[in-house]
Every structure is written in structure tokens, then in C-alpha cells.
Design a protein that fits this description.
Elements: H1 9-36, H2 40-43, H3 48-57, H4 59-68, H5 72-91, H6 101-110
Helix pairs in contact: 1-5
């Protein structure tokens, strides 16, 4: 269990994003592809019906709409969380892959690399 000690909420949210990515990056990336209806990008034709369904349901569109309704303070906290995720992705190649073998194997199997969050 990670313990986060920070001087302010911005640092807490950024650290939480980094730690979450460290533990769940693959799950986070896969969930994003499912919600966006982009599973075909790595699973091929077999995922076409899922992608069509998810694009029809429009969870990604709704999430973007809801994000636009956030006040500046809350949006800033979400951005710090995303910044933490992206910091992990950007620094992941610098980490000894022996420390994170599960991430390495999952992305190798899919012949993909992690993409930055927005």
C-alpha cells in the first residue's frame, strides 16, 4: 500500500495519478479503449461489435460533456491526477523493466505502448 505525503491537494492528486498508473496502467488504458470504442485497434475484427456498441452508447462523449461542466478548481484536480498518470508513462522506460514485468508482458503481447492521457 502506498502512502502519500504531500504539502497540498495538487501534489496529492498528482501523486495519486502516478501511483495508480504504476499499479493499474494497463487496466486504465484498456478501459479507455473500451469506452472510446477503439478495441479493434489491438483486438482486430473480433471487437468490431463491441466498438460499435460503445460508440453508440456514447460514454466517451458524455464524459467529455460532463468534464466541460466542472468548475475550475475540480478540473484542476482532475488535471493533476492525469499529469501524474502521464508522468509515470513518460518515465516508465527509465524504470528497470524487471521492476514492472507485468506491464512489459501485457504491452508486448498487444504490440502497443502506453499512450498519454488527456
Amino acid at each position: 500500500m502506498a502512502y502519500i505525503h504531500a504539502r497540498n491537494l495538487d501534489d496529492v492528486f498528482m501523486a495519486q495519478g502516478f501511483v495508480t498508473a504504476q499499479e493499474r496502467l494497463f487496466q486504465m488504458q484498456l478501459t479507455r479503449l473500451v469506452i472510446q470504442g477503439r478495441v479493434c485497434e489491438f483486438a482486430g475484427e473480433v471487437a468490431k461489435n463491441l466498438d460499435i456498441r460503445m460508440r453508440t452508447i456514447g460514454l466517451h462523449r458524455m464524459a467529455k460533456k460532463q468534464a466541460g461542466l466542472l468548475n475550475d478548481k475540480t478540473r484542476g484536480y482532475f488535471q493533476k491526477y492525469v499529469d501524474g498518470i502521464n508522468a509515470f508513462i513518460e518515465h516508465c522506460p527509465l524504470i528497470s523493466m524487471s521492476m514492472i514485468p507485468v506491464i512489459q508482458v501485457k504491452y508486448r503481447c498487444l504490440q502497443r505502448s502506453a499512450s498519454l492521457c488527456q
